[in-house]
Amino acid sequence: MEHRCEIPLASLSGASKRYGGTLALEEVDLELRAGQVLALLGTNGAGKTTAVSLLLGLLEPDAGQARLCGRSPRDLAARQGVGVMLQSGALAPTLAVSEHLDLVRSYYPDPLHVSECVAIAGLDGLLARRYGTLSGGQQRRVQFALAICGRPRVLFLDEPTTGLDIEARQGLWRGLRALVAGGTSVLLTTHYLEEAEALADRVVVLAGGRVVAEGSLDAVRARVDQRRIRCVTALDAAEVARWPGVRAANRDGGRLEVVTGTAEDVVRRLLAADPALSSLDVSRAGLAEAFLEITRDAPMQEAA
Ligand SMILES: Nc1ncnc2c1ncn2[C@@H]1O[C@H](COP(=O)(O)OP(=O)(O)OP(=O)(O)O)[C@@H](O)[C@H]1O
């Protein structure tokens, strides 16, 4: 592999960024290491795009530091081998998809073959189409192809599957997994929690410009370690919701669904309270619940 760079491939240390009265990022630390897929999760306005912009040198931090391959992100050498797909991917509408691909491929010494780009990004039948005539989802796939066509060592994807239908989203995930298997490291931002669950080794959860959780998917889940209990019972949901350790209890037809951090205690109490209880199922709550739990108490910070 040519010129390997220092790890971490991308990092923020103590990075803060303010837009006028809004503190968009406050003392954020994060690292993307070789071989990783890091998902930056957060609700609208959490600071994800700002973090990516700092890492790419599109913005300068007010305090702290951004590094790309151990260098300033504004250093051309740092940006070599980096592929980028931002949210606002304005491309010439009158050029054909194949012309866009040829143009961007020409910037790189060893680009992917057009057929590889088509296969990875799902561009079958689109090469001859003018970019401006494509649907939003098709345009997103072209932007993805342009981000990967230079065989990037590091790929930044800012909400790559926003606007894609389920099939297209899963197609992009397959393409991304193929790249990762080939050695590409990825930092992606997403609102889609299942996207982080499907792709990422590590997650950083941002809320109000601060990192509120960081680690492996399992570690982030363990941080809130919740279980979902489902069962068929006549017990009253409102009453169960008041039991110690119960975060939520809701009824869905004949089934009761309980979210709790103390599953064993709650199961014991459910069985004692209703000997006729049946169809008991206990599962680990998904990242969605963990994420909501973590971000609930971290509102956006506005300066006075
Ligand atoms: N150019 C700007 N001028 C003023 N405020 C900005 C600017 N860009 C972002 N902000 C504010 O900074 C905060 C963080 O925005 P950012 O775009 O980084 O969040 P995000 O997590 O990417 O959100 P989304 O998921 O909606 O894209 C928000 O409150 C946003 O309104």
Automatic annotation (TrEMBL):
PROSITE patterns named among the record's database cross-references = ABC_TRANSPORTER_1 (PS00211), ABC_TRANSPORTER_2 (PS50893)
Which Gene Ontology terms cover its molecular function? ATP binding
At the top level, the lineage of the source is: Bacteria
Sorted UniProt keywords: ATP-binding, Nucleotide-binding, Transport
Any idea where the ABC transporter domain is? 7-233
Q: Signal peptide: which range, if any?
A: none
Q: Which Pfam families match?
A: ABC_tran
- SUPFAM superfamilies hit by this protein: P-loop containing nucleoside triphosphate hydrolases (SSF52540)
Q: What is this protein called?
A: ABC transporter ATP-binding protein
